[in-house]
Amino acid sequence: MKKKVYVKSYGCQMNAYDAERMADVLAPQGFVETDSAEEADLIVLNTCHIREKAAEKVYSELGRLRVMKDERKAEGRDTTIVVAGCVAQAEGGEILKRASAVDLVVGPQSYHNLPALLEKARRARVVDTEFPIEDKFDHLPAPSRDKIRSRGVSSFLTIQEGCDKFCTFCVVPYTRGAEISRPVAKIMAEAERLAAAGVREFTVIGQNVNAYHGEGPDGRTWSLGRLLHRLAEVPGIARLRYTTSHPRDMDDELIDAHRNLPALMPYLHLPVQSGSDSILAAMNRKHTGDEYRRIIERTRAARPDIALSSDFIVGFPGETDADFDATMQLVREIGFASAYSFKYSPRPGTPAAQMANQVPEDVKSARLAALQQALEEDRQRFHRATVGRTIDVLVERKGRYAGQMAGKSPWLQGVQFDDETVAIGDIVQVEITGTGTNSLFGQRVGADPASLTAVQRPHSTGANAA
Ligand code: SAH
Ligand code: SF4
Ligand code: F3S
């Protein structure tokens, strides 16, 4: 009988990508994936350490799993429990002390050794949080064509890992290690394999994706802008996205790619964290609010319809009402299409956690509520602005209701539309007729020339209809 593995992933896209790679490493060992813990012989929690809440979630989950494991044991059935990801890296052996159900703790840079580590863990509990010298990517087996297909037409592609920026609030440089860029040739090999199996869109990912500086086939160092141009040439690839970027690494080549590369979608997630210069300095972000505004202006000049997205932290140590107002001011000026916002969470081992002037919880809550209300208004305004327009949609799956399909707009909005005849992976034109809280609704146009309702452009490779 096949053994079953359940990988539950928390946190960012890097973790989502790693979760798939872990399943790929385990497939040759006879493990098939399941999406239910109840069915699984092997349970992997791929954890996130970014905020206290995220990290604590893991321990409550492990508490539940211990009960399950004990019950099964009584019935003579074994369950193996693995903690992977950033909590594993940050806490290592502490996890074994706090959670008796855990058999193996494995960090984000050593999960390619999972088969050997699992073998070892049959004898005694194991912790591996090394940053090995070998490149884990060289040891990861390629997923099968069917596996790639089952994961959909839009795929993450890791090009860069780790971070050297050391923002004073952030654990990532400690949990993911130093910044490294994968060589272009290796990225291209993975990209071509994914595209050959039907992938139409890549979101290239990295903790600091626009700091990418990988070795090119010409022996020179390639930037993200250059790599994106190369990825756009992969047969079958219609759309490119990248995340997450740092304002300090938005170079001219990348901004130009937004102007010159039609496959590069008009969407930029560029975390600013705060609008106050003194808070930005205390965060060690190494840019000011105005420098951020200038980058946005230049990007908008290159691609006027670009949708902007950001991350915000409220209640960083020392944040005054005036600092918070500066954040609100920046939000009102820029008008983000989407955003994530968080209360500052002190993290062990980071400089900001030691700062004296921590902000009280109720102040953080009030600021977060005000910020989220402003961001939500902008988000809804952005959605409503698409109503009445005909836009390109990459079809990703069947829709919620019979007769519907679902996909994404160029601006990363979910779109539900009526028409069952299109195939997953097609790019079709949809006239937007309404908006919901999280998605757009529309009608497909252009299928039958007689039914054309809007000025149509020829079938494109993903440039938007603006
Ligand atoms: N590399 C990315 C961010 C990765 S972490 C960047 O530089 O922008 C994702 C987001 O989590 C951050 O942008 C930040 O807004 C938030 N975050 C990180 N550490 C945090 C902390 N200690 N408390 C609250 N939010 C935090
Ligand atoms: Fe964390 Fe800053 Fe690095 Fe982003 S750039 S991962 S926020 S240290
Ligand atoms: Fe969380 Fe690690 Fe990503 S801390 S946000 S899973 S890099």
UniProtKB/TrEMBL annotation:
Residues 149-381 form the Radical SAM core domain. Residues 3-123 form the MTTase N-terminal domain. Coiled coil: none annotated. Residues 384-446 form the TRAM domain. [4Fe-4S] cluster 2 binds at C163, C167, C170. Keywords: 4Fe-4S, Cytoplasm, Iron, Iron-sulfur, Metal-binding, S-adenosyl-L-methionine, Transferase, tRNA processing. It catalyses: N(6)-dimethylallyladenosine(37) in tRNA + (sulfur carrier)-SH + AH2 + 2 S-adenosyl-L-methionine = 2-methylsulfanyl-N(6)-dimethylallyladenosine(37) in tRNA + (sulfur carrier)-H + 5'-deoxyadenosine + L-methionine + A + S-adenosyl-L-homocysteine + 2 H(+). The keyword S-adenosyl-L-methionine applies. It holds the Pfam family TRAM. SMART domains: Elp3. Binds 2 [4Fe-4S] clusters. One cluster is coordinated with 3 cysteines and an exchangeable S-adenosyl-L-methionine. GO terms for cellular component: cytosol. Its cofactor is [4Fe-4S] cluster. Its EC number is 2.8.4.3. Gene3D superfamilies: Methylthiotransferase, N-terminal domain, tm_1862 like domain. One of its GO terms (molecular function) is 4 iron, 4 sulfur cluster binding. [4Fe-4S] cluster 1 binds at C12, C48, C86. InterPro entries: Elp3/MiaA/NifB-like_rSAM, Methylthiotransferase, Methylthiotransferase_CS, Methylthiotransferase_N, Methylthiotransferase_N_sf, MiaB_methiolase, rSAM, rSAM_horseshoe. NCBIfam families: miaB-methiolase (TIGR01574), MiaB/RimO family radical SAM methylthiotransferase (TIGR00089). Monomer. Catalyzes the methylthiolation of N6-(dimethylallyl)adenosine (i(6)A), leading to the formation of 2-methylthio-N6-(dimethylallyl)adenosine (ms(2)i(6)A) at position 37 in tRNAs that read codons beginning with uridine. This is tRNA-2-methylthio-N(6)-dimethylallyladenosine synthase. It comes from Pseudochelatococcus contaminans.
